[in-house]
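call fold(seq) -> tokens
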Amino acid sequence: MEYKIKFTPFFENQLKKLKRKDKVLFERLIKKLKELRQNPEHYKPLRNVLKGNRRAQLGPFVLIFDIEGELITVHYVKHHDKAY
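ret:
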């Protein structure tokens, strides 16, 4: 089953900036989003303040998202040190 992906306005803005400034990370992010549509439950659930969200690793970066039914909402991508 493929899930639908929705981006927050903040993440859409991040995508636009990444496309211009860091094409390598942008390409890795697009690849990860395609993987995410197939099996989002595979990724690690978060705890404490971010409970209900999950994370997907992109090298030193993490993609934070949540799942509601068949909809994945992508919140942001940040460096691991600043994401939590």
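Strands lie at 4-7, 44-45, 53-58, 61-68, 71-79.
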